């Protein structure tokens, strides 16, 4: 009896956390899966079960394959550029220079601004008739006249996608730099001193001391960026709505495009997204030997 | 954020007004025990700011009505257009039904048996413009009652036309092609073609009608990939490729293109009366600088244009308020209030008698003559999904292969 009571002792303390995870994480997943098998009218009336109908409709979408491939490009390119630039800038911010404190504070600004706001500003700045970026490009002689196909960056799918990747890099950089900067500061200075005594040049020190010791911080930043960029919604939605058609959509915005009228099908897209995130994370953990890193 | 705040204050303001009105009446009606009825009206906001918010209009109607009928109080809730659909949907999903809505109308609610038929809550439903009857009907019974309407015409910039040396209004697609290329030569946009997700379904239909096409045939079957429609988009694709429209119309929004027209940078554009206040507030074009004519078709101007209505729907709730709703709707549908609303927002009336009263108006006359013959969007329950799919994808019909795009939209429409 007392043994049982002792075993159950921690339960009341764990309960709130368990309930929270259950309600906020697990329950929505259950509802998501349920919805993906239901037939739902555009204004939310449930008209019975759909079996695999939603999934069949999803896989019959002509745009699906290109959307998935575009998502891969989106994640790989944005995360790669962010990490490389982040490494360089973190190094810079780690060096003593006058006004470093102010510069570090300024770095927070694009992070603190809502991503939606940043995206809206870019959409406005790229307006094909009167956007300031286009006016600047015209003054520099890079574009010939306003209001043309050339200045309509967001109207051409490829150009629009490149601009959006740029915005995604911009908003991901601050977090990445801070994560890497924190990592850099944990590296003891005497390691560098010892290396210098042994006659290593700075590139050698960077490769043999900085990079290996930065690995935990780098891994965390990489994983969080992959998940963030994969799920990124506001940039694409505010700048192009994924249009024309779905030719600038990733799986996340495509899910929302479907949601406007095909709720069940949209839920099955979410299930697919969910599966992809799980796979990415598992592969990632395996490849980076996460456990050893964290311990 | 600011908008929500204004909306919220408006709601509070109306609420207070309604409350004070209620306080006055309860003293008089207290003799008759429990004889008062309260109606909850949810209406969309057509205003552009606090100065002309629709809550002012509805408060004046509700006050006047309450004076005439002290036993009935109308509580008004005005919701911004962007939130209207979700607000009503949430109320319905939570079973907190409003008594009356004015704005978008959902045939699904009639399908679910939630609504009163028009004949039960309006003394003279025959006065509603017959052109909009089918759109509000489910299985032959009218539930959605048009409250305000608009129709589409072709606007053109007379100043640009003169500069380009064009003498007459465009009547055919060939006219549009030549006129647009002349205006393009001036460095402006020839034809504003918003095929993006905001209103792509309207723009596409206006062009389909010009070639004898449309979304459905006379028996209500979807015919989106009909040969006429494919031909229409082949023409549009040519127009776009020649640079006679704004660049990349596939994702351009209507609001932006209307603004461009109001700035005097677009030669021709399909518009509705709602474009008039935009032109006026931009203060670039004088009244004599633009005009509107019937929409150009392949071989001549359209005799039937697209007409759109916003509707009133009456919910059954507990089934006891039909008489009170009827009194209120009869009061609201008087010509005075119809015209007051349309004057305020540059829209068109929805009743035959009010339309007659406005027929001689110089700006609205042309729209009104087109109205009784207007074509409506499909009214079946599948339309909500078909519409979204068109808004999403119709633009790609001028960048990719028109037939493939229309085929895939048709496939999804007929799968329902």
From TrEMBL, chain A:
Keywords: Cell membrane, Membrane, Transmembrane, Transmembrane helix, Transport
CDD domains assigned: TM_PBP2 (cd06261)
InterPro entries xref list: ABC_transporter_permease (IPR051393), MetI-like (IPR000515), MetI-like_sf (IPR035906)
Keyword Protein biosynthesis carried by entry: no
Gene Ontology CC annotations of this record: plasma membrane
Localisation per UniProt entry: Cell membrane
Residue spans crossing the bilayer: 12-33, 72-93, 105-126, 160-181, 213-237, 267-285
Top-level taxon: Bacteria
Signal peptide: none
ABC transmembrane type-1 domain sequence ranges: 68-284
Gene3D superfamilies (alphabetical): MetI-like (1.10.3720.10)
GO BP: transmembrane transport
Membrane association type: Multi-pass membrane protein
Major subcellular site: membrane
Keyword Transcription: no
Sequence similarity: Belongs to the binding-protein-dependent transport system permease family.
Official protein name in the record: Sugar ABC transporter permease
Source species: Leekyejoonella antrihumi
UniProtKB/TrEMBL annotation, chain B:
Signal peptide: 1-20
Stored PROSITE patterns: PROKAR_LIPOPROTEIN
Keyword annotations: Signal
SUPFAM superfamilies in UniProt: Periplasmic binding protein-like II
InterPro entries per UniProt: Bact_solute-bd_prot1, SBP
Superkingdom field: Bacteria
Signal as UniProt keyword: yes
Protein name per its UniProtKB record: Extracellular solute-binding protein
Native species: Leekyejoonella antrihumi
Lineage: Bacteria, Bacillati, Actinomycetota, Actinomycetes, Micrococcales
């Amino acid at each position: 009896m007392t043994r049982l009571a002792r075993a159950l002792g921690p339960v009341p303390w764990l309960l709130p956390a368990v309930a929270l995870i259950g309600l906020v994480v697990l329950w929505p997943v259950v509802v998501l899966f349920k919805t993906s098998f239901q037939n739902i009218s555009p204004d939310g009336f449930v008209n019975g079960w759909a079996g695999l109908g939603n999934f069949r409709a999803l896989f019959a979408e002509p745009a699906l394959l290109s959307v998935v491939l575009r998502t891969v490009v989106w994640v790989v390119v944005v995360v790669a550029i962010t990490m490389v630039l982040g490494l360089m800038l973190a190094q810079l911010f780690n060096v003593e220079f006058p006004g470093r404190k102010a510069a570090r504070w300024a770095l927070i600004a694009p992070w603190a601004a809502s991503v939606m706001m940043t995206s809206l500003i870019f959409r406005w700045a790229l307006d094909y008739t009167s956007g300031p970026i286009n006016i600047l490009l015209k003054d520099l002689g890079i574009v010939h006249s306003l209001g043309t196909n050339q200045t309509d960056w967001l109207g051409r799918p490829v150009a629009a996608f490149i601009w959006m990747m740029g915005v995604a890099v911009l908003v991901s950089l601050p977090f990445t730099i801070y994560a890497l900067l924190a990592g850099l500061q944990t590296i003891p200075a005497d390691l560098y001193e010892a290396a210098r005594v042994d006659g290593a040049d700075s590139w050698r020190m960077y490769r043999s001391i900085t990079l290996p010791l930065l690995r935990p911080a780098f891994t965390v930043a990489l994983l969080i960026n992959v998940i963030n960029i994969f799920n990124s919604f506001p940039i694409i939605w505010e700048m192009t709505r994924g249009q024309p058609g779905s030719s600038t959509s990733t799986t996340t915005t495509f899910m929302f495009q479907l949601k406007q009228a095909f709720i069940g099908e949209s839920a099955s897209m979410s299930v697919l997204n969910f599966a992809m995130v799980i796979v990415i994370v598992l592969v990632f953990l395996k490849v980076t030997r996460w456990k050893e890193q964290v311990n | 954020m600011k908008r929500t705040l204004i909306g919220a204050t408006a709601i509070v303001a109306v609420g207070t007004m309604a409350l004070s009105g209620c306080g006055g009446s309860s003293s008089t009606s207290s003799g008759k025990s429990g004889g008062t009825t309260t109606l909850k009206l949810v209406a969309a906001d057509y205003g552009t700011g606090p100065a002309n918010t629709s809550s002012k209009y509805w408060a004046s109607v509700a006050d006047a009505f309450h004076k005439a009928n002290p036993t009935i109080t109308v509580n008004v809730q005005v919701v911004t257009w962007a939130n209207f659909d979700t607000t009503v949907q949430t109320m319905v999903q939570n079973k907190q039904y409003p008594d009356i809505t004015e704005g978008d109308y959902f045939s699904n609610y009639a399908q679910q048996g939630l609504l009163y038929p028009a004949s039960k809550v309006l003394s003279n439903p025959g006065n509603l413009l017959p052109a909009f009857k089918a759109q509000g009907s489910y299985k032959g019974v009218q539930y959605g009652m048009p409250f305000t309407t608009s129709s589409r015409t072709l606007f053109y910039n007379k100043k640009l036309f003169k500069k380009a040396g064009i003498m007459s209004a465009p009547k055919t697609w060939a006219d549009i092609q030549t006129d647009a290329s002349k205006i393009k030569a001036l460095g402006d946009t020839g034809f504003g073609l918003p095929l993006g997700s905001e209103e792509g379904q309207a723009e596409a239909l206006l062009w389909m009608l010009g070639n004898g096409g449309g979304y459905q045939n006379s028996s209500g079957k979807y015919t989106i990939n009909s040969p006429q429609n494919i031909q229409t988009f082949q023409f549009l694709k040519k127009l776009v490729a020649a640079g006679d429209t704004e660049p990349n119309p596939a994702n351009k929004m209507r609001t932006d293109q209307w603004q461009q027209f109001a700035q005097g940078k677009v030669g021709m554009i399909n518009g509705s009366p709602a474009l008039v206040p935009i032109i006026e507030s931009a203060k670039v074009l004088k009244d004599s600088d633009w005009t509107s004519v019937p929409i150009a078709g392949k071989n001549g101007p359209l005799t039937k244009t697209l007409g759109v209505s916003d509707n009133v729907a009456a919910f059954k709730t507990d089934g006891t308020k039909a008489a009170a709703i009827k009194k209120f709707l009869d009061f609201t549908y008087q010509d005075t209030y119809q015209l007051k609303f349309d004057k305020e927002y540059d829209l068109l009336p929805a009743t035959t008698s009010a339309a007659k009263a406005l027929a001689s108006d110089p700006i609205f006359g042309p729209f009104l003559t087109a109205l009784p013959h207007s074509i409506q969007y499909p009214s079946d329950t599948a339309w909500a999904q078909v519409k979204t799919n068109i808004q999403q994808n119709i633009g790609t019909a001028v960048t990719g292969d028109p037939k493939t795009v229309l085929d895939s939209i048709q496939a999804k429409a007929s799968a329902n």
